[in-house]
Amino acid sequence: MEPTHRPVISATGLFTPEESISNEELVASFNEFVRRHNAANAGAIAAGEVTALEPSSVEFIEKASGIKARHVMAKAPVLDPEIMAPRWPERSNEDLSLLAEIGVKAARQALERAGRDASDVDAVLCAASNMERPYPAMAIEIQQALGIEGFGFDMNVACSSATFGIQTAADYVRSGNARSVLVVSPEVTSGHLNWRDRDSHFIFGDVATAVLVEDAAMAPDGHWDILGTRLKTVFSNNIRNNFGFLNRAHPDSVGAADKLFVQEGRKVFKEVVPMVAQMILEEADRLAIDPATLRRMWLHQANAGMNRLIAHKVLGHEASDDESPTVLDTYGNTSSAGSIIAFHLNSDDLAAGDTGLICSFGAGYSAGTVFVRKAA
User: How does strand 239-240 pair with strand 262-263?
Assistant: First the structure.
């Protein structure tokens, strides 16, 4: 028997900041910081009391990650060797917050693409890694700015927040508790990144995405049927950020490096790739989907090498750019928004009946799969 309420993805939205930082610009800024640091500490370095910093290069960044550029909300201060962090004017409580502002822009695009009015939406989930504040919830602020009745709440599962949000929204639709749910992922990841760390300063970028999950009975033509979702978490310290409202140390203070993004990259690669590939294969088997028939995989945009290996394990061959498109090169790692950007920019060409996979993975560890099929 067909379920009474069947969740689908009706549309997606994307907000991209105007400013972008190329690897060449980033390396020039970082190397100037290194030069100044080493010059200021020359005596201590010669005495063996301080370790000299090593410069970076465009070749190093692209080999390590596949990233060539990233969008940011505040370019000038990030590239300033004296600051190397985003800066923007403080907003009053009466003004729309930064995360809500970019989240609303992505959400409005999703609503427009679906031909939907805000009055049709029942709930807003703000699913992201980098919340601007503990409360009031960003989702409720976005809900108010859009003029949506109903409810909203925030959820954070790091880089898997969007896929966890999609399953949560689908469950609301399936149970009849909502007919239309916006999953909004505003990611200003530049704020939690240590731009002075050679091994990670190139990883992240800023963006916002939105996914409209609805009951198939009200969805527009060309929507995406949600065939099945699966979520998984396994605790790990290999990706961590210790900053929070219980911690009063400012990220710029001495000894506060762990209040920003830190990771053990090699361990993450070794442990996450097999976990995610196995999860995808198990869920495909449960849904009676032959992985080799997947028309496209929209994977989390964290590392080009990870994506190549996961896609190979799932498809059984080296994936082409068409089978596993990349946005990492121009957007960088945008945390929970990455797989949604890939889906948003690389899905209109698929035909009715084509099957694909939206997949996320990251800190937690967390991983989420959303198998979809293009409807007529």
Answer: antiparallel
Domains and CATH numbers, the chain: 224-374 (3.40.47.10)
Average pLDDT over every residue of 176-190: 97
CB 272 within 8 A of CB 306: yes
CA distance 80 to 140: 35
- pLDDT per position as a tens digit, 8-53: 999 999 999 999 999 999 999 999 999 999 999 999 999 999 999 9
Q: Is there a contact between 370 and 167 (Cβ–Cβ < 8 Å)?
A: yes
Task: Count Cβ atoms within 10 A of the Cβ of residue 89 and give its class: 0-12 exposed, 13-18 middle, 19 or more buried.
Answer: exposed
* Cα 92 to Cα 87: distance, rounded to the nearest angstrom: 16
CA distances to 186, 307, 329, 337 from 242, rounded to whole Å, are 20, 27, 28, 21
95 alpha-carbon distance from chain centroid:
25
Among this protein's residues, is 359 annotated catalytic?
no
d(CA 323, CA 164): 23
Does an H or E element contain 33, and which? helix 23-40
Strands (E), 47-142: 69-72, 123-127
**What is the β-pairing status of strands 296-299 and 355-362?**
parallel
Indicate which residue of 124, 126, 159, 210 is catalytic: 159
Contact criterion met (CB below 8 Å) for 354 and 289: no
* Strand ranges inside 118-176, DSSP E: 123-127, 151-155
Per-residue confidence (pLDDT) for residue 369, from 0 to 100: 98
Name the one residue in this structure whose structure tokens are 């004296």: 82
Are the beta carbons of 179 and 8 closer than 8 angstroms? no
- Mapped onto helix, strand or coil, the DSSP state of residue 223 is coil
pTM of full prediction above 0.90: yes
Residue 358 pairs with which residues in a beta bridge?
298, 370
Q: How many Å separate Cα 263 from the centre of its chain?
A: 16
Residue of 298, 300, 368 whose CA lies nearest to 334: 300
Closest CA to 116 of 59, 174, 180, 54: 180
Coil vs helix vs strand at 11: strand
- Retrieve residue 8's tokens: 């689908």
